[in-house]
Fold 2,4-dienoyl-CoA reductase [(3E)-enoyl-CoA-producing].
Amino acid sequence: MPSNDTLNNNSMANVPSSSVFKDDIFRGKVLFCTGGGTGICQKMVEAVMRHGASAFIFGRRENVLHATSSDLSRHTLQRCSYASGDVRSIESLERAVAKCISEYGRIDFVIAGAAGNFLCPIDQLSPNAFKSVVEIDLVRCFIG
């Protein structure tokens, strides 16, 4: 197992996905991603789009989704659109899926990335916070 020094070493270069995958491996495909407006999910969406896919991102904050969608389209030269809503609402999720299918005709890939996070020790997590995390991270991935 690597030492902490190795894990924390920022000098390690990222391997470009183009060294592993063909540049157009996802050309003509459609990605649907919950939680794609920020963080690691945004970067995963970007990576898939750089290989030719169009993307549809879904999350709670419309202003963030609008900006991210525009940035992703501009940087990847692929189409990216979005819908805002709460992944805990089946109706909201169904509307987003319907909008994606209406715009793109289908969904080929899904990244179920929406997550609930409460950064605190478990003994400080309230029952409602725990229920929210389970609902977002587990139940909606299964149902959605």
Observations:
- The domain at 23-114 is CATH 3.40.50.720 (Rossmann fold).
